[in-house]
């Protein structure tokens, strides 16, 4: 989703920017900056560059309807939800700085893509920890694969809902022409998130902030 401020009234874009700025301030306040691992932080910065490349690999049918991977679920699992929100904002600022996004619509895009995707992934992780067994497969498949695909669908649904309510496109065009493409793209998001998460957990578990050896590998004979 790549919304432009020209598709909506100017007051909507400014209101979205104000709300996004407030949300980012809360996220920055909640991040435990002094407890962050320096090596992991460098890796997360590299992840931002990788995610920026994924956002650039996009296609679109009409203004505001672009198709690209998000990386929000992977960011949430690697960094935790608060830092993930900041990182995704940095990715979108990088896009705008390169002329690939509308500066005035940054808040709108963050609210409709990054925020719902991160919230869904974070809630899914909380529910999995509470109701599902603490197993490595559960973490990779449920929190990685399934949450990755669901997070993209959630972000796409929020964007399509706003476009429909604003009357930018007719509902039948959004539901019949755009939504199916997002369902197809969600499989790529799910596979990429699950695969990268599994590799990182095996080889660089200290980069994955939400992974706990004692919880997920405590009973394994080959525990590190």
TrEMBL record:
It is a multi-pass membrane protein. Keywords: Cell membrane, Membrane, Transmembrane, Transmembrane helix, Transport. It is found in: Cell membrane. It comes from the Bacteria. Pfam families: CbiM. The chain crosses the membrane at residues 12-32, 38-57, 69-91, 103-124, 136-169, 181-203. Its main location: membrane. Signal peptide: none annotated. This is Energy-coupling factor ABC transporter permease. The lineage of its organism: Bacteria, Pseudomonadati, Pseudomonadota, Betaproteobacteria, Neisseriales.
């Amino acid at each position: 989703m790549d919304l432009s401020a020209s598709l909506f009234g100017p007051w909507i874009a400014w209101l979205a920017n104000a709300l996004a700025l407030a949300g980012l301030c809360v996220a920055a306040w909640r991040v435990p900056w002094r407890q962050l691992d320096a090596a992991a932080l460098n890796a997360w910065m590299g992840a931002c560059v990788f995610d920026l490349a994924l956002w650039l690999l996009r296609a679109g049918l009409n203004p505001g309807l672009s198709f690209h991977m998000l990386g929000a679920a992977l960011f949430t699992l690697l960094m935790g939800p608060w830092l993930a929100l900041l990182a995704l904002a940095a990715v979108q600022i990088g896009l705008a700085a390169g002329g690939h996004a509308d500066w005035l619509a940054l808040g709108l895009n963050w609210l409709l893509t990054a925020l719902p995707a991160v919230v869904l992934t974070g809630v899914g992780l909380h529910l999995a920890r509470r109701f599902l067994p603490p197993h490595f497969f559960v973490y990779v498949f449920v929190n990685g694969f399934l949450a990755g695909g669901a997070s993209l669908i959630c972000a796409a649904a929020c964007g399509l809902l706003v476009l429909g309510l604003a009357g930018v496109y007719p509902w039948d065009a959004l539901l019949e022409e755009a939504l199916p493409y997002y369902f197809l793209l969600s499989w790529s998001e799910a596979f990429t998130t699950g695969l990268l998460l599994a590799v990182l957990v095996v080889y660089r578990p200290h980069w994955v902030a939400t992974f706990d050896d004692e919880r997920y590998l405590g009973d394994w004979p080959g525990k590190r």
